[in-house]
Design a protein that fits this description.
Blueprint lengths: L2 H27 L1 H4 L4 H12 L5 E5 L2 E3 L2 E3 L1 E6 L7 E7 L10 H8 L4 E5 L20 H16 L4 E11 L1 H12 L6 E5 L5 H12 L10 E4 L2 E4 H9 L2 H7 L4 E6 L7 H10 L3 E6 L12 H13 L1
Parallel strand pairs: 5-6, 5-7, 7-8, 8-11, 11-12
Antiparallel strand pairs: 1-4, 2-3, 4-6, 9-10
Helix pairs in contact: 5-6, 6-9, 7-8
Length: 310
């Protein structure tokens, strides 16, 4: 082989490697540009375009299960009954209710989504679903509530059942994770605001400080850090394996958490981001535990981007 031919072949090989490496580098930087959309995602985006986002309606819709009647309300484009739209189910935090997510629900509905927010049984002093003293609730009773809500909406023809999302706030984010761990096939993605992944550690810390070494020593009600809970809450919290639940859900997860959170340490979300198989963590610098701290232009843009991809 002549020297000129050998040189030409080497140059061609080098060019191929550069082009190949360049393509790989570009696709790693902007993978969604090169990744073809699935048929389900194309259908979802088509549905969103059909939604009457200029006219938003709100309707009270309750879900019943096991003798409980869970209050909830739907915020959606006015023509939602005529088409099939993706749905976001919002779970509120500890000692709160569905009203906390009203602003988020309206913003999401204006982008074509149906949003259902509900009160957990015993979820707060202002709950409209029963047990306002919060002494008969626990993470597992709330898990049962969310499962019932998910079952209800999966059966509705107005919902694109392949695109049901769970959005949780604090304790509600923990509950969303527990449900998604067992029903990954039913959940397209999750958005978790300041998730209360510290609950089991907090309960163990409280028992230690109060001098309880075993659940049998715990009275029917316990007051700790300005909260009074029933024995059921403590007993159920001790059974939770939160890291295992996180690992069990392999779908997309967006975690949004304030770095100055004094209720749920930000470090728990840092750990969760590494534990979930596919999670992104969006820190809100200087934000505390209030969801109002999260509703900013930057957060909404990130959230909008995440939802469009999933």
């Amino acid at each position: 082989m002549s020297k000129k031919i050998r040189t030409a072949l080497i140059l061609l090989l080098a060019l191929a490697l550069v082009i190949g490496g360049g393509y790989a580098a570009i696709t790693s930087l902007v993978p969604d540009f090169f990744k073809p959309q699935s048929a389900a995602l194309k259908l979802k985006n088509k549905e969103l375009k059909q939604a009457d986002t200029k006219n938003i309606v709100t309707e009270d819709i309750s879900v019943s299960h096991d003798g409980r009647n869970l209050y909830g309300y739907l915020v959606a484009p006015r023509n939602y009954k005529d088409i099939s739209l993706p749905l976001i189910i919002v779970s509120h935090g500890y000692n709160s209710n569905a009203d906390v997510s009203s602003k988020f629900a309206t913003l999401a509905a204006q982008r074509g989504y149906m949003v259902y927010s509900f009160d957990f049984y015993g979820g707060g002093n202002s709950t409209r679903s029963g047990d306002p003293d919060m002494l008969d609730m626990s993470a597992l009773t709330e898990k049962a509530d969310l499962n019932a809500v998910l079952d209800y909406w999966k059966s509705q023809k107005t919902v694109d059942s392949s695109h049901i999302y769970l959005a949780g706030i604090s304790h509600g984010a923990l509950i969303s994770t527990l449900v998604a761990a067992e029903r990954a096939q039913d959940i397209a993605a999750m958005v978790l605001f300041a998730p209360a992944f510290h609950v089991t550690d907090l309960v163990k810390q409280g028992m230690q400080e109060l001098g309880y070494t075993d659940i049998s020593q715990v009275p029917d009600t316990v007051s700790y850090k300005d909260h009074t809970v029933g024995k059921r809450y403590i007993a159920d919290a001790l059974t939770l394996d939160i890291p295992t639940a996180q690992r069990a859900y392999a779908g997309p997860v967006l975690i949004i958490h304030g770095t100055a959170d004094t209720v749920v340490p930000y470090s728990y979300s840092e750990t969760a981001q590494k534990t979930f198989p596919h999670a992104q963590l969006m820190p809100i610098d200087g934000a505390d535990h209030s969801i109002s701290d999260f509703v900013s232009v930057g957060t909404l843009l990130k959230l909008d981007e995440f939802m469009k991809k999933n």
